[in-house]
Design a protein that fits this description.
The protein is mainly beta. It has 1 helix and 9 strands; from the N terminus they run αβββββββββ. About 12% of the residues have low confidence.
Amino acid sequence: MSRKLFLFISTIFLSAVLSGAVFGFDSQDTVSLALNAPVSRDFKDGAKHGYTVSARENEIIEISCERRGVNVSLAAFAPDGTKISLSNAPGGFAGFDRLLFIAEKMGEYRVEIDSRRPGNSAGSYTILLKARRGAT
């Protein structure tokens, strides 16, 4: 194999890996949430979307999610990957979910949005980091 061909193939492969195309990872799947900055996305059942929230020790994090045409659930994970909270709203294809958790230590917390009931529906949602305050 010529050096130019090798460099070309290597560049294509590296670009595909970095873009996530090889592993099916959508570059939008992990988005950092900012206070009072809503994020709206389309959602198809079977998908899983991820978000991160930076939190200080003993900080209460409140996240809301308005669902339109999809039945989703929210879960929060500590920096070590332990699941620490689940959304508390009843299922349905419209309405609001609320997710609350206390950050026990400073770090990046992950929030996942997942299908509550697998099926063929599609819709959208808006997620919002609604509040962050010190625990009392």
